[in-house]
Automatic annotation (TrEMBL):
<feature type="active site" description="Proton acceptor">
    <location>
        <position position="182"/>
    </location>
</feature>
<keyword id="KW-0311">Gluconate utilization</keyword>
<dbReference type="InterPro" id="IPR006114">
    <property type="entry name" value="6PGDH_C"/>
</dbReference>
<dbReference type="InterPro" id="IPR036291">
    <property type="entry name" value="NAD(P)-bd_dom_sf"/>
</dbReference>
<keyword id="KW-0570">Pentose shunt</keyword>
<feature type="binding site" description="in other chain">
    <location>
        <begin position="185"/>
        <end position="186"/>
    </location>
    <ligand>
        <name>substrate</name>
    </ligand>
</feature>
<comment type="pathway">
    <text>Carbohydrate degradation; pentose phosphate pathway; D-ribulose 5-phosphate from D-glucose 6-phosphate (oxidative stage): step 3/3.</text>
</comment>
<comment type="similarity">
    <text>Belongs to the 6-phosphogluconate dehydrogenase family.</text>
</comment>
<feature type="binding site" description="in other chain">
    <location>
        <position position="190"/>
    </location>
    <ligand>
        <name>substrate</name>
    </ligand>
</feature>
<dbReference type="InterPro" id="IPR006183">
    <property type="entry name" value="Pgluconate_DH"/>
</dbReference>
<feature type="binding site" description="in other chain">
    <location>
        <position position="260"/>
    </location>
    <ligand>
        <name>substrate</name>
    </ligand>
</feature>
<dbReference type="InterPro" id="IPR006113">
    <property type="entry name" value="6PGDH_Gnd/GntZ"/>
</dbReference>
<dbReference type="GO" id="GO:0004616">
    <property type="term" value="F:phosphogluconate dehydrogenase (decarboxylating) activity"/>
</dbReference>
<dbReference type="InterPro" id="IPR008927">
    <property type="entry name" value="6-PGluconate_DH-like_C_sf"/>
</dbReference>
<feature type="binding site" description="in other chain">
    <location>
        <begin position="128"/>
        <end position="130"/>
    </location>
    <ligand>
        <name>substrate</name>
    </ligand>
</feature>
<feature type="domain" description="6-phosphogluconate dehydrogenase C-terminal">
    <location>
        <begin position="178"/>
        <end position="467"/>
    </location>
</feature>
<feature type="binding site">
    <location>
        <position position="451"/>
    </location>
    <ligand>
        <name>substrate</name>
    </ligand>
</feature>
Amino acid sequence: SLYDFGMIGLGVMGRNLLLNMADHGFSVIGFDKDATKTGALESAATPGTTVKGVADLAAMVQQLERPRKLMMLVPAGQPVDDVIASLLPLLEPGDVVIDGGNSHYTDTLRRVKYLREKNIHFMGIGVSGGEKGARTGPSIMPGGDLEAYAKVKPMLEAIAAKVNGTPCVAYLGKEGAGHYVKMVHNGIEYAIMQLISEAYTLLKKGAGLDNDQLHKVFDSWNKGSLQSFLVEITADIFLQKDDKTNARLVDVISDKAGSKGTGKWTSQDAMELPVAVPVIDTAVAMRTISGYKDQRLAAEQLYPAPDATIHLNTEQWIQQVHDALYFATILSYAQGLAMLNEGSRELQMEIPLPEVVKVWRGGCIIRSTLLEVFTQAYQQNTELANILLDKGVASLVTSVIANTRSVVAHAANAGIPAAGFMSALSYFDAFRTGRMATNLIQAQRDYFGAHTYQRTDMAGTFHTEWEHHN
Ligand code: 6PG
């Protein structure tokens, strides 16, 4: 008998998604040219489920129920095009091919168009949640044509994470929308990770907290308004013992951060639109600066740090850092969601933001209790251009702003790097300023380049012959 679903690429993500599908009653078949991986797939299957591994692509395609539904989980870039090239002669009109990897949405757009000419439905789907999420319930961000989505919807809903019984998957827009939403998800992921690392250094250098105390702080934060996957795993990380020394593992890990590029894509695309996502930009930049290890060590000798001790009672300081993290986390989502709003309009993807925040509530790396707040905000106003304009969000932001200012001021005085917090606050202060100082920039542009300006008191475009005074 034929299989319900096929997977190309049986790395840990591909294998786990397939096993998840099988656990939900679908018969599945996976292809990988590496026979150890096909074997690993079959031996990991839950007894009683229908799971097959093959090392021959054509054999897999032939054994799929028509119209075929298959996903590839291979590294982004050329490997995806290579798989498409080898699949094409084996497919028939109406088949659905899903790219579940972290592809750039412009590649997805190109592939959607190319395969549409051949009557193959190509869907770019963002999958978040790491290996464990893939196995037990990821957050799934599909984009493409609705007809194709209808064919795979039952499977995606079955395997997705559930929040109060609602699956964390929904149709998120046309063409490349799935990968676009996943890209922005990753930008927000970068931002929040940066902010958590700043909270860590502010607590550690500012108040001298050790790993056990840091664990307790993050663990308690995870029980309150900061409840989130990233805060939860951070609490765990402080307790992890190193198996090579007596140290805590976090203390022996190099401070050079890696990246695969999706955070950078978010910033690049935001600049192009344009839309301002400075917390994400800062997060990308900090990973880059983390790579300047030798220069940083030299600079440390040249520029001694001011006294980093925060002269506040520890409990108060922890509360202030908590509030700053809460503030800046809201700002990270606000910037990412504003980008989705703008990108969707610009590229005509029709991304439904109320659905995006619901899908992100469970399974993904940026899941957090805050997404419930944003879900409510979009229930009030589905067209919200920026969640900071929602009254409920505004009252939360207002409740933590004073402590955020205090943390940023202390970080500046103590010379503790906290660019994410600072950037979030700067964006916020510009955003809530009805009349910015950019009138002066317009004057300068007109002065040196006759770039013209608009006036506050009358309509039209003006140019002035500016008087020179020296
Ligand atoms: C997820 C993650 C994941 C991503 C890594 C890579 O949602 O499960 O976003 O898809 O591959 O987090 O990020 P780096 O750029 O930090 O390697």
